[in-house]
Amino acid sequence: LDPMTCLGFTCPLTSLCCLVYRVTTIAERVGSMEVPILGRVDKTNALMYALITLIASIFLGGLPWFIYIFLLYKGVQTRFQIVDSDLCICCKVFWCDCCSVIKIGRHVDGYHDVDGYHEAMGSPVWV
């Protein structure tokens, strides 16, 4: 999936669709997350939140998208006990949100392919 994701990010016509799709698959595979501002993010509402934040970002200079990706990254960090400071995550998301989405996507995909993963994803994680 990563080569196609990278290819999708290089074309201006497909990059936003690719970002929305990848963020949605990450949320589906991570499971339920309780995040500030948004509440519960899971496979039922991740697409809606991604589209709303992208549309709002058009008018607000990308800030809603930055916050959404930051919160998604924090959710993945909390779910998988990734050691990373908030400042480091903030810088990664600010300087290259596509790279951040690819990084957390690869991490989630790696766990998703392991047997017994789905049983471990039962309870929501609080960010």
The number of helical runs is 7
Strand order of the largest sheet: 2-1-3
Report the mean per-residue pLDDT as an integer: 81
Strand content: 5-15%
What's the total number of strands? Answer: 3
Q: What letter string, H or E per element, gives the SSE order?
A: HHEEHHHHHE
Describe the global form: globular
Largest sheet: 3 strands, mixed
Structural class, by secondary structure, is: mainly alpha
Q: Could you explain how this protein is built, in words?
A:
The protein has 127 residues and is mainly α. It is 69% helix and 6% strand. The chain contains 7 helices and 3 strands, in the order ααββαααααβ. It has helices at 2-10, 15-30, 46-60, 63-80, 86-95, 97-112, 117-120, and strands spanning 33-35, 39-41, 125-126. It has a 3-stranded mixed beta sheet, covered by helices on one side. β1 (33-35) and β2 form a beta hairpin. α1 runs antiparallel to α2 (15-30) and α5 (86-95) packs across α6. It is globular and about 35 Å long. The mean pLDDT is 81.
